[in-house]
Structure prediction request, 372 residues.
Amino acid sequence: MGSRRTANEIKEKALAMGAKAAGIASVKAINRFAPPGHRPSDLLKGAQSVVVVGGGEPTAGAWRTGTNRVLGSIGYNRSQLASAARQLAYFMEERYGHYTIPIPTGDWVGHYPYMSLKVCAELAGLGTRSMAAGILLNPQYGLLYFNGVITTMPLPEDGPLGKPVCPHDSCVRLWEKKLTTPCLSSCPDCLSGEIKDGKIRWMEYRQDGCYPRAQTTAMDAFRKLLLEAVNEPDPEQRKAILFGSHFTRAVRSMAYSSELSAQCFNCLKRCPVVMKRVRRLR
Amino acid sequence: MPRFVSMDLYNRYKEEVWKLTNARQRLEPGKANRGLTDKEIASRLGLTVEEVMEIRCIAENDNISLEAHLDADDTKEKRFSRPPGKGGAI
Prediction:
């Protein structure tokens, strides 16, 4: 087992490579939740630990943009954390001599991931599940995106946070008065839930309601528009579909990897955990 | 290499497969709730993993309309400036 000092060295390196936060989860702990086929050891033989890096969140200013479209365009970039994870994998192999891979973060097939980064990040102490679609909220940064590396190196785990970040006290008070929270009221088609005794009693997230908003111009939109065009018998109408604004954005999204993910943000725009960070600036 | 599934097979199983996926995610602290993997669904419905994978993948697109994508910007912008319940139903 690597020492706590080694674990800290790895986490400090991750921060130096561009992560805002880093934590370690043991594969044993992850396997208690992750199903076979979607476990770290399915991706790397003999995997013992996962080092999770968090970051890539919207800047404080991004939350104050005038339109959802702008926030959606600049709120997230998938390259920064992937780069940090890859650099960290090289570093760990060279320095400690253990096999290490960046977690494949694309989809496995369709909407299923290779493995749940959310489970890994939760067990690495980087956040707890929220009423907002179960998105992890970090006590310091609010919203974080995640990436990481899987390694055969046994490392001391951080373990999950002791205290849930969500619900915020102000959300509990709002629930007691109006039976809603800022996130639930922002998107009643995607989200539902209940707070009891100041804690999340249950939360439900409908991915099919969220998907077209979070991925408005991404791959699924591209394929649907393509099918619409292929099935359209009128050449002029076909042109209207393929040269039209939505298809143009979808093609651009894929070509430049822009506007692809998490373009909605509305459920977190009024989240007090996220907004407390925004309020610190002038 | 996955093969295309027949639309007969797809239509017969799409609802059952969809219900077992993680399309609807429920969090209840202390309880284990998760959608099933393709392998688990296959075992439950007596299909092959490849068949389930194909059916799920098609259903994920089929069950979300093109209109939902086309209307999303409008809904998002309205909710961005004023969430539902704060005057003006959306």
